[in-house]
Amino acid sequence: MYQQHQRSRSVAKSEVYTLKKTGKILLWLARMIVGITFVFSGFVKAVDPLGSAYKFEDYFTAFGRFFEHLTPIALPAAIALSTLELLIGFCFLLKIKMKGMSVVALLFMAVMLPLTLYIALNNPVSDCGCFGDAIILDNWTTFFKNIILSLLIVVVMIFVKQQQPIFLPAAEWIVITLVAIAGIGFSVYNYRHQPVIDFRPYKIGVNIPEKMVIPEGAEPDKYETMLVYEKDGQQKEFTIENYPKDSTWTFVEQKTTLVSKGYTPPIHNFQIVDQNLNDITDYVLSYKGTVNLLCMYDLNKTSEKGVKAAEVFYQKIKSKGTPFYALTASSDEEIEAFRNRTGATYDFCKTDPITLKTIVRGNPALMIIKNGTVVGKWNWRDF
Q1: Backbone angles phi, psi at 336, to 5 degrees
Q2: What is the per-residue pLDDT across 51-68, written as a single tens digit (0 to 9) for each?
Q3: Is 134 exposed, middle or buried (CB count within 10 Å of its CB: 0-12, 13-18, 19+)?
Q4: d(CA 187, CA 181)
Q5: Where are the domains of the chain?
Q6: Distance of CA 149 to CAs 32, 55, 152, 191, Å?
Q7: How large is the average pLDDT for residues 218-240?
Q8: Taking burial as the number of CB atoms within 10 A of a residue's CB, which of 20, 46, 106, 227 is the most buried?
């Protein structure tokens, strides 16, 4: 009887030990998932702060009114966001100030959860930009990801007393300071030059024509077209096949909606049109040799020092006969005003502004292609 009792106590202790061990593993896993996610999110934003700033500008424009006036702070906001995410992530990974950082992380998600729900419901932008250009998530996936992260943060917060610190308090503040300085410094470096890791379609080594090809047999986008007609004050939708052909119905409008998304090539909107409205895209991409493309998406926002650097670079290569085009989305009037203001002597062509922002970071910035392949990209500071 005594032996049975001892055996039962031993089994009970073993089960309790197993539960505690399992709980510790799950708690460790929750902390790791939160930490790694925040570090990765902060890192890819810090790699490309201008890209994050463009995303902030998209949000401000989409929300309209008051938010449009916040556009000038888009870049500082992008750097601050990436640094905050890096701080939260590293603190979770290294068990630094867990009580305080759990609260900060939960407050962060308290802002992000309703924001991403609004974005998912209203779709003001197609991609939230949570992971920069490294991983593109649709808006609903982002929202559910944030729900999971929030739950994991709550778990870590509940059992925060079980998180034994690794560092002494003084050392913790040193680590926090170093992470903040490194995060800001890394962002500023990438802003002043080019992202050290390029997640975009126009990375060095990419052959642009190849990335524009739609594979044979690939599914195209599928659209549904509805025709709206009115009769006796009532409107009704019809398909193209069964719309009314008698004169008692009056046509109102045509509605076209995307039913299913087909294959979209990585590069699908690269087009260069000269000032005589000639499409020279094929000429530029098929040119046997080097072509210099100076990208200035908005001539009213170009750096004066950058414009001067571009002119010096152009004069250096002019004698070599190498094609050189300035690509912009600005109007002909703005181009003429820019010429008069800066004395620019190179040829201008029109390109979509989003494409120009995607090609290379900076205004101005330079991309050089050879036989259609990207061989170099530089911010104006590196001309």
Answers
A1: -65, -40
A2: 999 999 888 888 877 788
A3: middle
A4: 10
A5: 2-192, 222-260, 267-382
A6: 11, 22, 5, 29
A7: 84
A8: 46
Q: Are 51 and 132 in contact (CB under 8 A)?
A: yes
Residue type, 177: T
The CA-atom distances, in angstroms, between 77 and each of 56, 62, 187, 210, 343 are 8, 17, 12, 36, 34
Residue 348's DSSP bridge partners are 326
Any idea which architecture 267-382 has in CATH?
A: 3-Layer(aba) Sandwich (3.40)
User: pTM here?
Assistant: 0.83
Write out pLDDT tens, residues 313-371.
999 998 888 999 999 999 999 999 999 999 999 999 999 999 999 999 999 999 999 99
Amino acid at 254: Q
pLDDT digits (tens, 9 = 90+) for 184-193: 999 999 999 9
Token pair 């170099």 in the structure block, residue: 376
HEC secondary structure over the chain: CHHHHHHHHHHHHHHHHHHHHHHHHHHHHHHHHHHHHHHHHHHHHHHCHHHHHHHHHHHHHHHCHHHHHHHHHHHHHHHHHHHHHHHHHHHHHHCCCHHHHHHHHHHHHHHHHHHHHHHHHHCCCCCCCCCCCCCCCCHHHHHHHHHHHHHHHHHHHHCHHHCCCCCCHHHHHHHHHHHHHHHHHHHHHHHHCCCCCCCCCCCCCCEHHHHCCCCCCCCCCEEEEEEEEEECCEEEEEECCCCCCCCCCEEEEEEEEEEECCCCCCCCCCCCEECCCCECHHHHHHCCCEEEEEECCCHHHCCHHHHHHHHHHHHHHHCCCCCEEEEECCCHHHHHHHHHHHCCCCEEEECCHHHHHHHCCCCCEEEEEECCEEEEEEEHHHC
Per-residue pLDDT at 94 exceeds 70 = yes
